[in-house]
Design goal:
Layout (H helix, E strand, L loop, with lengths): L1 H15 L5 E2 L6 E3 L3 E4 L16 E6 L3 E3 L5 E7 L3 E9 L5 E6 L3 E2 L5 E10 L5 E11 L8 E8 L18 E7 L4 E7 L5 E2 L22 E3 L14 E6 L6 E11 L5 E13 L6 E14 L11 E8 L1
Parallel strand pairs: 5-12
Antiparallel strand pairs: 1-3, 2-10, 3-8, 4-6, 6-10, 7-8, 7-11, 9-10, 11-12, 13-17, 13-19, 14-15, 14-18, 16-17, 18-21, 19-20
């Protein structure tokens, strides 16, 4: 109890003694549950081979790869015994300050080093390799060497983790549809063969007379059927993914309102993502094109009896 009280007093002092006001930090690239936000530069000095106290002694996460817009990502660690609070910042993330929260109880099996833990939410605009920096603050408001933890934030549109590791090749092509309401909206693509592909029929594969896949064809596959049956999954995003170059020809893109799910209307956007080779050796980037927007109304819901609304087309050569 004494440790907790002292930590809270140190936290209040570190936040308020400078005369700077606390803010909610709602526009920051990361949000930390239960922490206070303070504008300014993260206390302490950058990570170094010979760190100085007060400092974090360990730093870990529940996973090193999370999806864009994820929340509830658990970060845990310990500090030197002189620390009373920690400060957290997304290094290079363009924020205006850092988050502060008190440390927990000492751990006897680790030389009485106090523990800490927090839950972080990453902004929906963040993608790629992100670096969390953590500083420890003592009772006098002083801080030593910061610690850093790298976390890969993978885009919601599949890229095989290319955003974090540019040497990994992304899919050759991805057709993506996203929307803003809890409706069951479906991306529909008509392949050059005339086959209509959607999450209800999620593969471009063609079958021969014996019912077997036609050999040699590149297959595009949907990643999921979002909001199927009006069961909201929080994603509102569907992607048709071609890991290899699709068959040549013209592809038609439609947005079909399978079920309005009680919504009067829904806004959507369609985007085409293509693999490109970057200037640097053995690296790749993803080119975004054909971004198209539209609105569908409840009256257009058709339970899959129609193709839906034509959005755009693209040619594969």
């Amino acid at each position: 109890m004494k440790r907790t009280t002292a930590a809270c007093l140190a936290l209040v002092c570190s936040l308020g003694c400078s005369g700077e006001s606390l803010t909610q930090g709602l526009e920051e690239p990361i949000q930390i549950q239960g922490a206070q936000f303070r504008r300014g530069t993260l206390p302490g000095s950058p990570p170094a081979d010979e760190p100085e106290a007060p400092r974090p002694t360990s730093l870990a996460s529940q996973g090193r790869t999370v999806e864009q817009g994820s929340s509830g990502i658990s970060i845990v660690g310990r500090t030197t015994p002189d620390a009373e609070s920690i400060a957290v910042l997304l290094h290079g993330g363009g924020g205006s300050g850092y988050w502060v929260l008190p440390v927990g109880t000492p751990e006897p099996q680790f030389n009485d080093e106090p523990t800490f833990g927090f839950s972080v939410a990453f902004g929906r605009e963040l993608a790629g390799m992100q670096r969390l920096r953590v500083a420890a603050i003592d009772a006098r408001g002083e801080s030593g060497t910061q610690s850093e933890l790298e976390i890969c934030v993978a885009p919601r549109v599949p890229d095989n983790l290319n955003a974090c590791v540019p040497t990994i090749a992304p899919p050759e092509l991805v057709v993506s549809l996203s929307w803003d309401r809890a409706a069951d909206l479906d991306l529909v693509v008509v392949a050059p063969s005339g086959k209509q592909v959607s999450p209800k029929d999620p593969s471009t594969v063609n079958l021969d007379e014996a019912g077997d896949p036609v050999p040699g064809e590149t297959v595009g596959v949907f990643d999921l059927d979002s909001n199927a049956g009006c069961r909201g999954d929080g994603r509102r995003l569907e992607n048709l993914v071609f890991q290899e170059r699709p068959e040549p020809g013209r592809y038609l893109i439609y947005a079909n309102l399978f079920d309005a799910c009680g919504e009067d209307s829904v806004r959507f956007s369609s985007v085409l993502y293509e693999k490109t080779r970057a200037d640097a050796d053995d690296t790749y980037t993803v080119n975004r094109s054909l971004e198209t927007y539209g609105v569908l109304t409840r009256a257009q819901a058709n339970a899959g009896t129609k193709l839906g609304t034509f959005v755009t087309q693209f040619q594969v050569r």
